[in-house]
Design goal:
The chain is α+β, with helices and mostly antiparallel strands and 332 residues long. The protein has 2 domains: 8-143, PurM-like, N-terminal domain (60s Ribosomal Protein L30, Chain: A, 2-Layer Sandwich), CATH 3.30.1330; 147-326, Phosphoribosyl-aminoimidazole Synthetase, Chain A, domain 2 (Alpha-Beta Complex). 34% of the residues lie in helices and 26% in strands. It is built from 11 helices and 13 strands. It has a 7-stranded mixed sheet, sandwiched between helices. It has a 6-stranded mixed sheet with strand order 1-2-3-6-4-5. Strand 12 and strand 13 (310-313) form a beta hairpin. The chain is globular. The model has no long low-confidence stretch (mean pLDDT 93).
Length: 332
């Protein structure tokens, strides 16, 4: 099997198909394009989401907290805290484990949430450190955001830029290689994108504005996130690739590794479905968040890209482009 997330087809037909909902207080369970589970807790709903960090080495605790909390933000909910599990091979230095916790706490302070607990274990069943996080949030029933309200003609808005997280990870984890080919200021700017991977702010703004769905662009990048949102809506999409913003540093680093920035892990980029995209873009910009309308929801279930070469199908996400870049020959 390929490195990275399993295919959505396998997820739907071989994993989710074996799960059955057994409790009435579980309002929303697993599904393609669903970032979170929704549990009924009286007047408020409890939102739960889990994520691992396997691709990054540097600042993995910081990345993990933000990514997991981003999923909660897609529902319009407030994040309360996260649990953190660390699995490390016997060769791991204790200082490396401590650094994961320090970085995770740094992100938690930024978000004003708690590290609720978790588990730390040394095990020879992993060859490098793996962390898994579960985030918990809450939201009033009438403020819950889901794709159930999506309609044909809705705009597709994305915030910030494609591939920012992947760009930052590569700038940290392949720094020595990149230094041979790019000026230090390019690498420093690429690293700085690590400080923009949270979508908590735009999730709150979009939730207050009133939208028909949100999805955080993680593995599979912006195009993968839009494909998954289409599946979650049960409707088609049409995306104009030229309208998707890409930072110069992402362009040059992606070009160096021969990868597609639109399919590069993109935490910090939120996909938002809304009936008035241009108005939401202006509100985002008034709050210091770049955003753009990049497409629309269409009738049926077809998924299309509008490119300079014409109209082509949007294919399901495969292994993230980050893994291809991380395997790039360091002696090149």
């Amino acid at each position: 099997m390929n490195t990275g997330k399993i295919s959505n087809e396998f997820l739907k037909n071989r994993i989710i198909s074996n799960l059955r909902r057994k409790r009435r207080d579980v309002l929303l369970g697993p599904g393609v394009g669903r970032d979170c589970a929704v549990l009924e807790f009286g007047d408020e709903l409890c939102i739960v989401s889990s994520d691992p960090i396997t691709g990054a080495v540097n600042r993995m605790g910081y990345i993990g907290v933000h990514i997991c909390c981003n999923d909660i933000a897609t529902t319009g909910a407030e994040v309360i805290g996260v649990t953190l599990t660390i699995l490390a091979p016997p060769s791991t230095a204790m200082s490396d484990i401590e650094q994961v916790v320090i970085d995770a706490e740094c992100a938690a302070r930024e978000l004003n949430i708690d590290i609720l607990g978790g588990h730390t274990e040394i095990t020879d069943t992993v060859t490098k450190m793996v962390i898994c996080l579960t985030a918990i949030g809450k939201v009033s029933r009438h403020k819950l955001v889901s794709f159930a309200g999506a309609k044909v003609g809705d705009d597709i808005v994305i915030t910030k830029k494609a591939g920012m997280e992947g760009t930052a990870i590569l700038a940290y984890d392949r720094e020595e290689l990149l230094k041979k080919h790019f000026p230090a200021d390019v690498i420093d700017r690429a690293k700085s994108y690590m400080n923009q991977i949270s979508v908590i702010k735009e999730g709150r703004i979009a939730g207050e504005f009133g939208v028909h769905g949100m999805h955080d662009a993680t593995e599979g990048g912006v195009l993968g996130a839009i494909w998954e949102a289409s599946e979650a809506m049960g409707m088609g999409v049409e995306v104009e690739t030229d309208k998707i913003p890409i930072a110069p540093e992402t362009q040059v680093i992606s070009g160096f590794f021969g990868i597609d920035p639109l399919r590069l892990i993109s935490s910090g980029c939120m996909v938002v479905i809304t009936p008035n995209g241009s108005q939401l873009v202006e509100i985002f910009k008034d709050n210091g968040i770049d955003a753009a309308v990049v497409g629309r929801v269409i009738d049926g279930n077809d998924k299309w890209l509008i490119t300079q070469k014409g109209r082509i199908p949007l294919m399901p996400p495969e292994a993230d482009q980050l893994y291809k870049a991380l395997q790039y020959d360091i002696d090149t």
